[in-house]
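Postdoc handover notes: sequence design on the structure in folder B. Input tokens:
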């Protein structure tokens, strides 16, 4: 075995041990989270939940331009992972990306206005729900092409490694992306180049309308494939925000210290259909009820009150979140329709299109 191969094998073994330890710690049930961090993650989850509910209501009023894919029920993953990141880290998300962008701190009004197709939106109303971008917070795009973001995430991770900045790239994907070629290409190259990238698979059980288990040869579509690339098969309860936070903190810290990439499979469930056009009647009633009983928001509220946090403090967080959503909604509605000339901006690297003609 060459020195490079031996080093790679040793690194993979070290990662596997550290990451497996992180998973065991996350599943142990003991809290390693201080109260300030716990309340911050509860705040993020509450704001995301109420934002998504408002987005649904506005869609029914025909105010949301195009379709929208809600992540209701998956808030704990976005909140926990974002809490573990540094301010200058990078993030890539899917078309179901409201949760992650809000958890990262993007202003709510800008996100809401983008859904409504208004000029005061993140992309001046041109991107809509599926194409959110906030470079100021390291969010390098939401991707509607399944799996497309994985290989691009390797690029930002390579850039950080080349520049020696210790920035980590976090890349979210759905369970359906694990059956896409880009998933395997990205994992392979990330390990070969020992990139500071962490892939988070949000396994919400369905790839659009099809149960992931019906079309996948292994039980865990992400975690069971990780060992083929020298990675630990990490799985976490995606409805337990502290378990997510603890595991993400460990693997992101490892990547920052040069230990290379990681892949986490977070087990969760979307409360609604694939998109607003999907009533989700294909899901068994018992399955839906069982997962609803594991709703991450009331579940975490119960954990916090059991630790002695006054329920009125949580009520105040919820109230403030509602007020914030109300304010964002009115500010978004008040935004102007995009000017026609904006259609020709932000098209190419120089901001325009004239040089192409």
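Designed sequence:
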């Amino acid at each position: 075995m060459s020195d490079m191969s031996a080093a790679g094998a040793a690194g993979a073994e070290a990662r596997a041990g550290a990451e497996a330890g992180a998973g065991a710690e996350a599943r142990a049930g003991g809290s390693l989270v201080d109260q300030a961090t716990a309340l911050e993650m509860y705040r993020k989850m509450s704001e995301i939940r109420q934002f998504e509910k408002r987005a649904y209501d506005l869609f029914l009023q025909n105010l949301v331009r195009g379709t929208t894919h809600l992540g209701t029920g998956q808030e704990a993953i976005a909140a926990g992972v974002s809490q573990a990141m540094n301010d200058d880290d990078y993030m890539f998300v899917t078309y179901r990306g409201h949760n992650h962008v809000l958890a990262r701190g993007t202003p709510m009004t800008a996100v809401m206005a983008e859904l409504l197709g208004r000029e005061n939106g993140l992309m001046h109303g041109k991107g809509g729900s599926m194409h959110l971008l906030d470079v100021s917070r390291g969010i390098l795009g939401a991707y509607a092409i399944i799996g497309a973001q994985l290989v691009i995430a390797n690029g930002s991770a390579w850039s950080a490694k080349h520049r020696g900045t210790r920035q980590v790239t976090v890349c979210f994907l759905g369970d359906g992306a694990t059956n896409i070629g880009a998933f395997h290409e990205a994992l392979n190259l990330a390990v070969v180049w020992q990139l500071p990238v962490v892939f988070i698979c949000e396994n919400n059980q369905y790839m659009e309308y099809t149960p992931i288990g019906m079309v996948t040869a292994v039980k865990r579509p992400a975690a069971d494939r990780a060992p083929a690339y020298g990675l630990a098969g990490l799985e976490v309860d995606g409805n337990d925000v502290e378990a997510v936070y603890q595991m993400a903190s460990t693997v992101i810290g490892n990547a920052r210290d040069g230990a290379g990439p990681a892949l986490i499979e977070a087990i969760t469930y979307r409360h609604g259909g694939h998109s607003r056009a999907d009533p989700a009647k294909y899901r068994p009633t018992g399955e839906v009820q069982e997962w609803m009983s594991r709703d991450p928001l009331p579940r975490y509220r119960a954990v916090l009150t059991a630790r002695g946090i006054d329920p009125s403090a949580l009520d105040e967080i919820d109230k403030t979140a509602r007020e914030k959503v109300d304010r964002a909604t009115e500010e978004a509605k008040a935004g102007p329709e995009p000017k026609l000339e904006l259609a020709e901006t932000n098209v190419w690297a120089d901001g325009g299109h004239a040089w192409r003609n």
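Context for whoever picks this up: Residues 13-24+33-332 form a domain with the Rossmann fold fold (CATH 3.40.50.970). Don't rerun without checking with the PI first.
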